[in-house]
Amino acid sequence: MTHPGGEPVSGRSIALFLAGFMLAWSLRATWLYFVDESIGSEGARLAYSALIKLGLWVVPAFAFAAWARRTPPLRYLGVLAWPRSVEWLYTATLIFIYLAAVANFEWLLNGNLPSKTHFLSMSRSAGISILLGAPVMEEILFRGLVLQELAQLMAWPAAIALTSLLFVVVHLPHWLWHAGPDISISTRSSGLFVFSVLAGYLYGLSRSVWPCVAAHTANNALAAALVHA
Predict the structure, then answer these.
(1) What is the pLDDT of residues 104-118, one digit of tens each?
(2) CA of 187: how far to CAs of 33, 98, 224, in Å?
(3) Inside any domain, residue 3
(4) Any domain includes 120
C-alpha cells in the first residue's frame, strides 16, 4: 500500500512526528505557558497563542506532507477538497444531532443551558480564536494529517479511535498542569473523544477538513454559550 503521494506506507515517520509534536506541545502547554500568562492584553495573548499553535501544529503538518510524503500539502491535508452539496447536508444533519445531544446532556448533568447573551459576551479576539483559529489549525493536523496517516496503517474505525485518543491526550498536559487531577477532566476528556470520533467520521465521508472544521466551530460555539441556569 502507498500513500496518496506515492510513498510507501510506514508507521515510523508518523510515529516520530507525533512523538516530537507531543513533546513540544506538552512543554509549551506546561512549563512555557508562563509566557502567555505574562501578556496582559487579551488580544495580544490570543495572537501569541495562535502564532505558537500555527508554528507547532500547522507548519509541521505542511512540512511532513511536503518532505515526508512529497505531495502538495494543501491537497494532501484535505484543505483543497470541497465536499459536495449532499455531503454538506449530511454534515449539517449530524452536527445538529450532536449539538442537540450535547446540550441535553449538559442540561441534565450540569444544569447548563445555552445563552445567547453569554455567547455574545465574548470579545472579538476570543471569538476569532475559539470559532476560527483553533478549529482550522487543530483539524488540519489531527484529521488532515494524523487520521489520514493512521488510516493507511489500520482500519478506519481503529484509525478514528486512535486519533481521538491522541486528540484527548494532547489536551491533558495543560489541564493537569493548571488544575491538577480532577473528576471534571474525565468528563471533558470523554466529551472531547466523542467529538473527535464525529470529526473523524466526517473526514472519512468527504476526505476534506472543512466539515470537521464546521463541527469543531459549532462545538466550540455551544461550549462558549453554555451557562449555569
Answers:
(1) 999 998 899 999 999
(2) 24, 16, 17
(3) no
(4) yes
